[in-house]
Specification:
This protein has nine helices and six strands, in the order βαααααβαβαβαββα. It is an alpha/beta fold. The chain has two domains: about 140 residues, Rossmann fold (3-Layer(aba) Sandwich); about 80 residues, Orthogonal Bundle (Transcription Termination Factor Rho, Rna-binding Domain, Chain A, Domain 1). The longest helix is centred in the N-terminal third of the chain and has 23 residues. Bound molecules: the ligand CSCCC(=O)C(=O)COP(=O)(O)O and magnesium ion. Magnesium ion binds next to loops.
Length: about 230
């Protein structure tokens, strides 16, 4: 029986277009000014720049070079933890200034609430930083959804296509894999989760459904509930 649900964000609770057409461009537009302003005195920014230099090989003292690396990573949708941490800090400003609300599909909000009220434990696992996850659900178009979540995981546990990341999450939660359902729109992430025993459901919100697939597929969270959570 499913007792825990772990959900992805982009393409699962929230639209891909919101992430790619609103969040990423906002971070790209404000990144350089934010770093130039804070790179001397903000320890959180300094720490991420250390990591960007380490990963990219760019000289740590070349702040403009590091900004260029980060801008390129945004354009390539790289899931680098340092970039994701900086994006979270930038988006915090955006949400607070009212530049956007976090997009969450109404069906996702409805069933997150319903599953929480039924006693299921809900978690997020996204490449977005934990800060960014709390922001999208805290400032969501469907209201503050953070009370429904018991915890958040980001790439600090590892990449989403790595089986070891799901093993690490299971270790932290202390639950049997067969009691956990992972929701995502990316097949490689579902495969990694399945390889350590998690149940999965493939969210395909738009476009054609696959002809044959070994796993349950759902258009929205109502279908997830109907296919996997009805007893
Ligand atoms: C927390 S919203 C921004 C999501 C993000 O930065 C991203 O790269 C999408 O990752 P996901 O694992 O949710 O597909
Ligand atoms: Mg996704």
């Amino acid at each position: 029986m499913i007792r825990v649900i772990i959900t992805d964000i982009e393409g699962t609770t929230s639209s891909i277009s919101f992430v790619h057409e609103v969040l990423f461009p906002y971070a790209r537009e404000h990144l350089a000014g934010f770093i130039r302003e804070r790179e001397q005195e903000d320890p959180a920014v300094r720490e991420q720049l250390d990591e960007v230099a380490g990963v990219s090989g760019c000289d740590r003292d070349d702040v403009e070079g590091l900004i260029q690396v980060l801008e390129q990573w945004i354009d390539e949708d790289r899931k680098e933890t340092a970039l994701k941490t900086l994006q979270g800090l930038l988006w915090e400003q955006g949400y607070q200034r009212g530049a956007f609300d976090g997009h969450v599909y109404p069906d996702a909000a409805e069933y997150l609430r319903f599953w929480h009220d039924r006693g299921l434990r809900l978690y997020v696992y996204s490449s977005g930083s934990v800060k960014a996850q709390k922001l999208i659900f805290g400032f969501s178009s469907e209201g503050d959804l953070t009370p429904y979540f018991s915890g958040y995981f980001d790439t600090n546990v590892g990449g989403k296509k790595e089986p070891s990341s799901y093993q690490a999450i299971l270790g932290e939660l202390g639950v049997e894999p067969s009691t956990v359902l992972f929701l995502s729109d990316v097949e490689d992430e579902l495969r990694a989760a399945e390889s350590v025993g998690l149940k999965t459901c493939w969210l395909i919100r738009d476009g054609d459904l696959p002809g044959t697939t070994s796993r349950p597929v759902a258009r929205d969270f109502r279908e997830v509930d109907a296919k996997l959570l009805k007893r």
